[in-house]
Structure formats: structure tokens, C-alpha cells
Amino acid sequence: MLTLLKKIFIWWNQETLGTKLKTLFYGRLVGSDSFGNKYYESKDGKRWVIYGGEIDASKIPNEWYSWIHFTKNKIEMMHQFKKYDWQKPHQSNQTGTENAYHPNKNNEQIKKKYSSWKS
């Protein structure tokens, strides 16, 4: 019973009941990505994503980002989603986590390019 109530009211955990019904009746599965996200399109051209796991918009890889935003990307059309050896796998936004980028300070004060007029 609690699971059903979560499906109806709590949209931030997973898809809601309304999204599930819309996907079931009107959605056509277009594809999925390595994160488990599934991409759907309706007959009238609307597009949406059902996230696999935690809902985070930065989990959409760039090959699907342009599709869901109706952006024609000539580079992607030429390469047909071909991944090269030098390309890193897509990562979601790491801000606020342990994996966030921090410049190397070496435990020293950053040298200023100016000096304060107050001493």
C-alpha cells in the first residue's frame, strides 16, 4: 500500500502513476542508454525520459541530450554515436560530492597577483 502511495505522490523517487500510464498508452520506446534511462516519444512528437535509478537531469548523455531537446547536431549524425578510445564515459554532475573537482592548492596560500594597499 505504501509503495502505491509513493508511486502516486512522490515524483522525485521514480516515475509517477500518471507518467507510467502515459508511457504505457502513448509512448513508443525509442532507445536506452548505459545508465538505464529509457527514452520515449509519442505520436504527436513529445519526448520524455524515464530515468533508471536516481532522477538527475545531468545523467542524460550528450547523444541523447540533443535528441530530447530537438537539436539537430551534424557531428552526431556523421558519427552515429561512435565512441572513440580517447572519449571518457559520461558522468553526471559531481558538484557537492567527493568526486567534485578542486584545484590543487598544495596546502599553500594562492599567490596573489596584486598587493593590498592596506598593511
From TrEMBL:
Biased composition, class Polar residues, residue ranges: 89-98
Family matches, as InterPro entries: NDUFA12 (IPR007763)
Region (Disordered): 87-119
Regions annotated as coiled coil: none
Pfam families in alphabetical order: NDUFA12
Highest taxon of source: Bacteria
PANTHER family associated with the record: NADH DEHYDROGENASE [UBIQUINONE] 1 ALPHA SUBCOMPLEX SUBUNIT 12 (PTHR12910:SF2), NADH-UBIQUINONE OXIDOREDUCTASE SUBUNIT B17.2 (PTHR12910)
Name listed for the protein in its UniProt record: NADH dehydrogenase
